[in-house]
């Protein structure tokens, strides 16, 4: 799958980079026929490489850097990669090193090699770019920040952007401050609290206190706005107080738009009754926490709860709610009922469905969709592995429709990144998993090679080897089967391979005596299950047995939190709510998608990892 190229951007980049090497021959940027231009630049790139063969350092590097620049501008990343690998960075002058960093990082980001992009900046000399023109310093800082964000170091990206903000003027300055806010918003609360403990710089501490104040009061819009007003009084001289980030400015206007009359449609009878009850209880817990807050003074939206499990025609119910003047409908959960509502040409009042339409079905205006789709988790795992440079992966999953669907999502992620498709091991429950793992890792082929060598060379020491084209393993499995699969990976010489899994691997209840076999597995999980200190979680445990439906209680709570913020999320696609089911954002199809937290099994217990969720995919 070929990436689309932004040629205007690359022409600008070309101009900036050529100015780094004063006295070097420039490359003319001409208009005209693009095919002829591609042929001309291809010839020029080859000419530069030929010149490099006939010159010595440091001039040799100048020619290679020019060829690299041309290949990147043309989107010829294969040839660009060959050139960048041919450059010995230890022999470069400082101006050459600066150009090498910008070009190398640009190439790596275009290829989704985010760890590699960051490595260029990590290895940069301390005085790199210090004496360069401002436009080149800005480009270097923006690339560096983008690499930090893509590798989960959003807190570091925010610091870098604050440091560089003084280089900007006019509206560009305020745009960068919006980027600072976006980076902080993508940072886990644990990282923010640790940074706040040591922050001394006025601007930096002010930003940390701002994001903390807004985030800690997320369940109540009134409390959130009161915290924002309090922060602005305390930090009146802070840049963000003088002009709020665009998202916070709109947040301040939400009380004028929030729904005052909400209907929650949940199945309280039938096969989905337990799930519906959990969603209802989570929703109501968030509602009562909101209205009992000091800022709400007992005021909140009017809530009507309706058993959608007993409704035969959801379309008729919607029309009656419309006539009764409801501002927002939350639900239904049943997929068939969501599809019925999608048959309306427009939904007014809007609907926040608690499930997703089938792939390829466009929702009508006014329909939003939210759910606990495992597809979000598979995409998150794939993007993490790709960003870490793990190009070859294996996927282990059961021969079941739900798992086959997730494996196909994984395939599409790797196909979109122009990488080999994951190597599958599709198992049947109860089969001989050891044979399946051995076949996946090609252990038997290794043993056959050893037998052939032994027949020729006689007695010799030998240990079977696994295949070497796998950098990581993705596991889509229930806890019961995963507890058998993980030890078999160790037995079959794959102890060095990292294993990643979706949340299906965790039952939601600490069982260290059983889950010790899962030690070392990284997996995606909801903040609800990884935190024991959420006040809302404690409230629900007073009134309900949450052990089986933990994630659905969290979903109900998040549905209440999303309700008054739908317009904000629609207008700001990068906007995120740090919900109890993950960091929530809205895509172009008006679907609420999730970025979950990373966890790891240690001593049989699920523990949160101090890694930042990535930004919403672009």
TrEMBL record:
- What's the superkingdom here? Bacteria
A Gene Ontology annotation in the biological process aspect, one of them, is: regulation of cell shape
**One Pfam family named in its UniProt record:** LppC
Keywords from the UniProt entry = Cell outer membrane, Cell shape, Lipoprotein, Membrane, Palmitate, Peptidoglycan synthesis, Signal
Recorded hits in CDD domains, A to Z, give: PBP1_YraM_LppC_lipoprotein-like
PROSITE patterns, per database record: PROKAR_LIPOPROTEIN (PS51257)
Kindly list the GO molecular function terms attached to this UniProt entry.
enzyme regulator activity
- The protein in question is named Putative lipoprotein
């Amino acid at each position: 799958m070929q990436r689309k190229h932004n040629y205007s951007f690359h022409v600008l980049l070309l101009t900036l980079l050529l100015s780094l090497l004063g006295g070097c021959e420039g490359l003319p940027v001409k208009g005209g026929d693009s095919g002829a231009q591609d042929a001309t630049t291809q010839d020029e790139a080859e000419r530069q490489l030929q010149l490099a063969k006939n010159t010595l350092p440091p001039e040799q590097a100048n020619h290679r850097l020019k060829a690299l620049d041309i290949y990147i501008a043309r989107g010829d990343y294969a040839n660009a990669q060959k050139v960048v690998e041919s450059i010995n960075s230890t022999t470069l002058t400082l101006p050459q090193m600066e150009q090498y960093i910008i070009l190398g990082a640009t190439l790596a980001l275009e290829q989704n090699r985010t760890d590699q992009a960051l490595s260029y900046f990590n290895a940069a000399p301390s005085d790199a770019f210090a004496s360069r023109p401002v436009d080149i310093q800005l480009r270097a800082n923006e690339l560096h920040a983008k690499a930090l964000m893509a590798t989960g170091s959003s807190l570091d990206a925010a610091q870098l952007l604050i440091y560089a903000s003084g280089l900007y003027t006019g509206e560009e300055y305020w745009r960068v401050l919006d980027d600072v806010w976006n980076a902080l918003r993508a940072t886990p609360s644990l990282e923010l609290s640790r940074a706040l403990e040591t922050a001394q710089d006025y601007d930096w501490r002010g930003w940390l206190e701002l994001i903390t104040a807004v985030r800690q009061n997320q369940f109540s819009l009134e409390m959130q706005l009161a915290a924002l007003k309090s922060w602005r009084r305390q930090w009146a001289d802070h840049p963000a107080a003088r002009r709020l980030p665009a998202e916070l400015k709109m947040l301040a206007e939400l009380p004028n738009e929030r729904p005052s009359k909400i209907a929650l449609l949940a199945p309280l009878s039938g096969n989905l009754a337990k799930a519906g009850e959990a969603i209802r209880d989570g929703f109501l817990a968030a509602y009562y926490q909101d209205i009992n807050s000091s800022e709400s003074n007992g005021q909140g939206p009017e809530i009507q709860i309706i058993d959608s499990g007993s409704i035969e025609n959801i379309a008729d119910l919607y029309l009656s709610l419309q006539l009764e003047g409801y501002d927002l409908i939350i639900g239904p959960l049943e997929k068939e009922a969501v599809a019925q509502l999608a048959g309306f040409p427009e939904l007014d009042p809007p609907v926040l469905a608690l499930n997703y339409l089938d792939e390829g079905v466009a929702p009508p205006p006014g329909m939003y969709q939210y759910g606990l789709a495992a597809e979000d988790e598979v995409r998150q795992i794939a993007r993490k592995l790709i960003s870490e440079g793990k190009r070859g992966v294996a996927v282990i999953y059961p021969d079941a429709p739900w798992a086959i669907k997730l494996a196909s999502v994984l395939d599409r992620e790797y196909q979109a990144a122009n990488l080999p498709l994951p190597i599958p091991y599709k198992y049947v429950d109860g089969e001989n998993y050891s044979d399946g793992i051995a076949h996946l890792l090609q252990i038997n082929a290794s043993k056959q090679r050893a037998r052939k060598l032994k027949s020729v060379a006689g007695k010799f020491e030998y240990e079977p080897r696994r295949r070497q084209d796998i950098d990581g393993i993705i596991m889509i499995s229930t806890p019961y089967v995963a507890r058998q699969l993980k030890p078999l990976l160790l037995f079959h010489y794959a102890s060095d391979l990292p294993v990643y899994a979706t949340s299906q691997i965790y039952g939601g209840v600490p069982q260290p005596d059983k889950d010790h076999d899962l030690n070392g597995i990284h997996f995606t999980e909801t903040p609800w299950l990884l935190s024991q200190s959420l006040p809302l979680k404690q409230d629900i445990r007073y009134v309900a047995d949450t052990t089986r439906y933990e994630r659905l209680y969290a979903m109900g709570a998040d549905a209440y939190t999303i309700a008054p913020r739908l317009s904000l999320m629609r207008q700001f696609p990068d906007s995120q709510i740090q919900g109890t089911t993950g960091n929530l954002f809205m895509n172009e199809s008006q679907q609420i998608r999730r970025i979950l937290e990373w966890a790891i099994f240690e001593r049989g217990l699920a523990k949160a990892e101090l890694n930042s969720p990535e930004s919403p995919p672009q």
